[in-house]
Amino acid sequence: MEPKTINRDQCLQHIDETVFKLRPSDYQPKHPKWPGLVGLEIEMLVVKPGGSDPDKPQVSQLFTGPHPTSKIIESLGRQHQWELNFTADDQGVPRLLTAKMQEGDMISFEPGGQIEISTKPYPCLAEANRRLREAQTLIEAGLNQKGFVIVQTGINPWHTKDEITLQMRKSRYLAMDQHFAAISPYGQRMMRQTCTIQVNLDFGPNETILAKRYLASELLAPFAAAIFCNSPVVDGKNQGIRGFRTRVWRHADPSRTGLPAYKRLLKDLSRKEAVQIYFDFALQSTVVFVESAGYLIPPKPITFSQLLEGALPDVKPQLVDFTTHLSLLFPEVRPRGFLELRSADAQPRAFQGVPAVFWTGLLYSDKILDQLIDLLVPYVDQIPQLMGSAEDGLNHPILAKVSREVMNLAQKGFGQLASCYKEGGAETEFAAYRDQFTERGRTPADDVLDALAFHNQTCLSLDAYRALEDKWMSVVAI
């Protein structure tokens, strides 16, 4: 049977049924004292010490060279009986795509060779943190045996996008690379150089909470981006701002990034309006490729709305094209049946748990959620400008002031959550981060900049980065 052509009403229905879903109905009966599901995703750089420049590590190779990192993950997978999934690249060569660990957590690769660990949604934060650390320990041990090291930072500080190249050469990424290159260099940077830590939370038990969590998370985006800046060095030099990853994402393709029309939620704080806002955003975003037409790239930019209206006369868009289109939208807060919170740079290992405490403390306590919205609504007209200022961390006075208040609310809210959320030292880690950075108007990027000044360098060596990581570990241990 020939697949059916999709129309606007079916696109809206798909978003309504799959994108803005309430928490699974069986969660509360199973966990009556716990506030919601938590999933974590972290992207990590893999580099190799040595080479012609002792201060600059080598680019790791995902599929080529004497020790391709995909083969290391594949070997670990066979050793631990993970489920390995392969796909053919543009030359028809089978390549490892994902490794599904025994408990369901996933290891995958970003286009520039970054390794990503995505936990499944766990009923409690402590469990998600535990699984993330266990996966990191296994992967790091395997990489270390072959001379590779992991670096957790918001962007690759040493290598240009052209030095890294597009390493994951599947059809999706080849089309994305071509699409973004036609707009600016930022999209290719996003794919090859950047790393984030994402926190995935459920929408809650009812439509009122869903709408509040969606609104609050969008209003929080510039503050989260500023608080967690960790990307001041790019292409081997200080870029003069603390959060270059935020700049990259803001400029990669404005039609599919940023913050959809959150102001409309202030007039109609409802699930129905949230669905309509995201539907409008999706239809006005440009089409990267049409999967059902063999990953066809439109000859000129068109929106998905125009695709539905027949902008490509020989193409009849199908549901797979819309679901793929949704997966290629990158707003600061992406609804995917849950809230995918995307604004934070990847954090050093010492502080990688802080963004999850931040988001759960603010969104999973209903009382704190209301206080948070009251705190942020007066700044609603300034959110776009603050998103731009977040590129430079807490340098903007409003970002610095409100971020301190937000962090205090997060700590208070987290303190009200179930004890299982606090196992593993999450509160200690958060308090150390707040005291070391936010309360002082600083971010991890400021420590990097101080180290650059101390060493009189434009880019820190790998050894200097690792010394910083040791310093941060000691801050948490105090």
Shape: globular
Q: Gap between N and C termini, in Å?
A: 65 Å
Biggest pleated sheet:
10 strands, antiparallel
Binned strand content: 5-15%
Helical element count? Answer: 20
Helix content: 40-55%
Q: State the total count of DSSP E strands.
A: 14
Model regions low in confidence, pLDDT < 50 over at least 5 residues: none
Radius of gyration: 22 Å
Global structural class: alpha+beta
Which whole number gives the mean pLDDT?
96
Q: How is this structure best described in words?
A:
This protein is an alpha+beta fold. The protein has helices at residues 8-19, 27-30, 69-80, 125-145, 161-164, 171-181, 186-193, 207-227, 244-252, 263-267, 271-284, 304-308, 319-327, 354-363, 366-376, 383-389, 397-415, 426-436, 444-455, 462-477; strands spanning 38-48, 58-59, 83-88, 94-100, 106-109, 115-118, 149-151, 197-201, 233-234, 237-238, 257-258, 330-331, 333-335, 339-341. The strands form 3 sheets. Strands 1, 2, 3, 4, 5, 6, 7, 8, 13 and 14 form a 10-stranded antiparallel sheet that branches. The termini are far apart. The mean pLDDT is 96.
What's a concise summary of this model?
The protein has 478 residues and is of the alpha+beta class.
Notable features of this structure?
alpha+beta; 10-stranded antiparallel sheet; 20 helices; globular; 478 residues
Layout: helices, strands, pairs:
Blueprint lengths: L7 H12 L7 H4 L7 E11 L9 E2 L9 H12 L2 E6 L5 E7 L5 E4 L5 E4 L6 H21 L3 E3 L9 H4 L6 H11 L4 H8 L3 E5 L5 H21 L5 E2 L2 E2 L5 H9 L4 E2 L4 H5 L3 H14 L19 H5 L10 H9 L2 E2 L1 E3 L3 E3 L12 H10 L2 H11 L6 H7 L7 H19 L10 H11 L7 H12 L6 H16 L1
Parallel strand pairs: 11-12
Antiparallel strand pairs: 1-2, 1-6, 1-7, 1-8, 3-4, 4-5, 5-6, 8-14, 9-10, 13-14
Helix pairs in contact: 1-11, 3-4, 6-7, 7-9, 8-15, 8-16, 8-17, 14-17, 14-18, 15-17, 17-18
